[in-house]
Amino acid sequence: MATHQDFQLSGAGVKLGPGARVFGFTNLYGCEIGADTRVGTFVEIQAGAKVGARCKISSHTFICEGVTIEDEVFIGHGVMFTNDLFPRATTAAGRLQTAADWRCLPTVVKRGASIGSNATLLCGITIGEGALVGAGSVVTKDVPAGAIVAGNPARVRPRGKAAR
Description:
Helices cover 0% and strands 28% of the residues.
């Protein structure tokens, strides 16, 4: 186990709360990570992203600009967040896009939510407090507080029932 000083960060401005632990081969820049949060290997957290206190971010996860994760959230292995509903490499005129050519849509994961491994979350949504997103789900719209969602696209499931 090591502190962020033991890793090469691709940019300045990483803010780690007390007791936060970051494991090897991560790519963090311009982000905030709260107290006592654990960030696994092969995780990227981009500038402007915020992760709350006492969270667990599992390996191979991508947290992009515009994502806010509140306290006590579990993020499984290989979870992918997005921040652009219409991604393109170039403009209509054929030049490479810049920051001025697209709009970052924020995503919020509320306190105590859990996101299962390999879930994909489209941008502009809110995952409600204490909600559970099943592994492999593709979340395209808001998830109510306390709800269980699963599938592609993710749909609310009755408590105690797995996706079929």
